[in-house]
Every structure is written in structure tokens, then in C-alpha cells.
Amino acid sequence: MSTMPPRPPVTSPEPRPADALAPLAGAAVPRGRFITFEGIDGAGKSSQIAATVALLHARGIVVEQTREPGGTVLGERLRELLLHEPMHLETEAMLMFAARREHLAARIEPALAAGCWVVCDRFSDATFAYQVGGRGLARDKFEALEAWVHPGLQPDLTLVFDLAPEIAAARVAASGADPDRFEREQRDFFVRVREAYLERARLAPQRICVIDADRAPDVIRTEIERLLGERFFP
Ligand SMILES: Nc1ncnc2c1ncn2[C@@H]1O[C@H](COP(=O)(O)OP(=O)(O)OP(=O)(O)O)[C@@H](O)[C@H]1O
Ligand SMILES: Cc1cn([C@H]2C[C@H](O)[C@@H](COP(=O)(O)O)O2)c(=O)[nH]c1=O
């Protein structure tokens, strides 16, 4: 009979209780891997995150699935403000990093230390793309926040879903969901966000893989499976 305590669902914004990670903690366990998904709104990340988590589960890997902004109770409250309240650009950038600080402390770091893999919908590359690229935040301010909030930490692998803004916008519109403050931005904004993601990928080619998101979901899933295999299960 299993002695594992009950676990909260992978998408829970609550930090896991200490005993939920206990079976993996204690003895020296290898640190988990940190995988992030990025791209303009509507590029198709969410659909592929679910498939990726299923692939990892099938290999017996314990996965913490989470998102930014959000991932903790406080982070989800900040998300509501960030997605719906107008604010100054620098306020927006600092709130993104405030939510991230909490997320790292309460959820990401404990999970990685306990050997869980963390699959996160967006991380600091999104701040670079949206706030620096899209809105014009000064790069040195972004770099200062990044160095303060997660010095020396970057994802092990980042998948950037690359898609033309008009196709992404059509997908968002077809989904029928109420658009948030970011999704209501015009094409030019998403052109800049997309370019910033591609620039970030050029700056960190070992970590960031660009995925052509203008393909059928099954084709994209197969490519992700291949990338994960090459990177983590050679
Ligand atoms: N490869 C694809 N081809 C066509 N449609 C897709 C594809 N992937 C996802 N979609 C559809 O596009 C819409 C947006 O997909 P999804 O929510 O996965 O994007 P996202 O990148 O997570 O967007 P957001 O960042 O806004 O949450 C959904 O309705 C989804 O069903
Ligand atoms: C982390 C992060 C996110 N954003 C923006 C990008 C999206 O429009 C929303 C999050 O919505 P999603 O549907 O869950 O992807 O927030 C941002 O501008 N900067 C960031 O750092």
C-alpha cells in the first residue's frame, strides 16, 4: 500500500504543505528541472503545457505545474490587478517581480529542492518581452529586478511559442474568452513582444528553444517530446 500523503492538485496556487514534499526530501535527491513556456497571448502554450506535464508523469516524474503572474495565493491576487487594473509601466514591472519573488520562495524553490520538476507558464522572459519589448521599460531596470529577485537562477529549458500576432489574435478571439488588459493590446504591441522574445532567444540559445507555433497541436507536441528527450533523457 502507498505511504504517500495526499497531494494537492498540480495547479493549486497554495504552497504545498511541507509533508507533501517530504517523500522526496530528506535524503539527497537530485534537484528538479525548471521548464518554462513563453509566447505572445494565444500562441498555444497552455494546450502544450498539459501535454508536457502528461509526458513527464508518464516517465514517473513528480511535476509542479504553475503559472505567472500567479502560482501562490498572493500571486493570484496580484495577477487579478495586473490583468485588469490600469497602472504605470514600472508599477507593472515591479508587481510582476513581486509576484515572482513570492512564487520562487513559496513554491518554485521548495519544489526544485525536493526533486520535483517545475513546469511554469511564463517567467522573467515574459517581463523582458512584454514590459521591455512591448511597453518600453528601460533594460537596466529589468536587469536590476531580475538580478535582485533570482540571482543565478534561470530555467533549465524555455520553450518560446513563436506565432504571427494576427494568427494569435484570431485564436484568442475564437476562444470566446473575455480579453484582459494585455490581450486587448494592438498588433504593433505584439509585434514588439514577439521580437523581444526572439531577441532573448538569440541571447540565450542554450536555454531557449523557439517553437514554430503555426502547426497542428500534435506536430508541436511531438517536437516538444523530442526536445525534452534530447535535453533531459539522452
Ligand atoms: N496549434 C494550434 N493550432 C490552432 N489552434 C490552437 C493551437 N494551439 C492552441 N490553439 C487554440 O488557440 C487558443 C489559445 O491557445 P492557448 O490558450 O493554449 O494559448 P496560450 O499561449 O496559452 O494563450 P494565453 O497566453 O493567452 O493564455 C485556444 O482556443 C486553443 O484551443
Ligand atoms: C509573467 C508575465 C506575464 N505578462 C502578461 C502576459 C499575458 O498577457 C498575461 C498572463 O496571461 P496568461 O494568459 O496566463 O499568459 O500577463 C507580462 O506582461 N509580464 C510578465 O512578466
TrEMBL record:
<keyword id="KW-0067">ATP-binding</keyword>
<keyword id="KW-0418">Kinase</keyword>
<dbReference type="Pfam" id="PF02223">
    <property type="entry name" value="Thymidylate_kin"/>
</dbReference>
<keyword id="KW-0808">Transferase</keyword>
<comment type="function">
    <text>Phosphorylation of dTMP to form dTDP in both de novo and salvage pathways of dTTP synthesis.</text>
</comment>
<keyword id="KW-0547">Nucleotide-binding</keyword>
<dbReference type="GO" id="GO:0004798">
    <property type="term" value="F:dTMP kinase activity"/>
</dbReference>
<dbReference type="InterPro" id="IPR027417">
    <property type="entry name" value="P-loop_NTPase"/>
</dbReference>
<feature type="domain" description="Thymidylate kinase-like">
    <location>
        <begin position="37"/>
        <end position="224"/>
    </location>
</feature>
<dbReference type="GO" id="GO:0005829">
    <property type="term" value="C:cytosol"/>
</dbReference>
<dbReference type="GO" id="GO:0006235">
    <property type="term" value="P:dTTP biosynthetic process"/>
</dbReference>
<comment type="similarity">
    <text>Belongs to the thymidylate kinase family.</text>
</comment>
<feature type="binding site">
    <location>
        <begin position="39"/>
        <end position="46"/>
    </location>
    <ligand>
        <name>ATP</name>
    </ligand>
</feature>
<dbReference type="GO" id="GO:0006233">
    <property type="term" value="P:dTDP biosynthetic process"/>
</dbReference>
<dbReference type="InterPro" id="IPR039430">
    <property type="entry name" value="Thymidylate_kin-like_dom"/>
</dbReference>
<dbReference type="InterPro" id="IPR018094">
    <property type="entry name" value="Thymidylate_kinase"/>
</dbReference>
<dbReference type="GO" id="GO:0005524">
    <property type="term" value="F:ATP binding"/>
</dbReference>
<dbReference type="GO" id="GO:0006227">
    <property type="term" value="P:dUDP biosynthetic process"/>
</dbReference>
<keyword id="KW-0545">Nucleotide biosynthesis</keyword>
<protein>
    <recommendedName>
        <fullName>Thymidylate kinase</fullName>
        <ecNumber>2.7.4.9</ecNumber>
    </recommendedName>
</protein>
